[in-house]
Write a structure and sequence with these properties.
The structure holds two protein chains of two kinds.
Chain A lengths: L2 E3 L4 E5 L4 E3 L2 E3 L5 E7 L5 E7 L5 E3 L5 E5 L4 E6 L8 E8 L5 E2 L3 E6 L1
Parallel strand pairs in A: 2-12
Antiparallel strand pairs in A: 1-4, 3-9, 5-6, 5-10, 7-8, 8-9, 10-11, 10-12
Chain B lengths: L3 E4 L2 E4 L5 E7 L4 E9 L5 E8 L5 E2 L8 E7 L2 E6 L8 E9 L6 E2 L3 E5 L1
Parallel strand pairs in B: 2-11
Antiparallel strand pairs in B: 1-3, 3-8, 4-5, 4-9, 5-6, 7-8, 9-10, 9-11
Classes of the chains: A mainly beta, B mainly beta.
Amino acid sequence: AQSVTQLGSHVSVSEGALVLLRCNYSSSVPPYLFWYVQYPNQGLQLLLKYTSAATLVKGINGFEAEFKKSETSFHLTKPSAHMSDAAEYFCAVTLTDKLIFGTGTRLQVFP
Amino acid sequence: GAVVSQHPSWVICKSGTSVKIECRSLDFQATTMFWYRQFPKQSLMLMATSNEGSKATYEQGVEKDKFLINHASLTLSTLTVTSAHPEDSSFYICSAREAGDEKLFFGSGTQLSVL
């Protein structure tokens, strides 16, 4: 069975600092992996996805994530945080149709 | 980009009444729609998967007679919470995908509060 774990329900960074949101997955075979972002009062939006091509995936708004099979991880990073990055971020895993979401990480960005 | 419209965004109802939530794909044909429920501080939980023109497939533990799902057209799926009770209060969100594309598009969610 697949599962996904997001370490840290809240992450706070200063504007301009590195953003690192952690995601570890459990799956019997390499899955598809996604990062979604939810801005206040908006629907979930796809940030990026891993579908067994390049292990380093670049997404929108300067975010990227690296698939590391040996660590079963898919951490989301951004070199320099911006105030507009404040949102809830969800990691998700799927093998077929069903998307399994992590519990989410709320990112706060301080000036 | 593709847009999924979910309505209403929030609803308050009395215990025992039924509430209908709509999920529409505005610029693509959603052959599959998913309904999720989110409890505070918990992950989204998949409730059911609906394919246009067929009965929904419910996840284990989800009461199909309580959460009625209809996907009668390629652009509309509805979730009806029948005889709602306070424990049904939650955030419900739909997502949709087009045939042959694994990318999911999400509605903005519905906050249901049952008094």
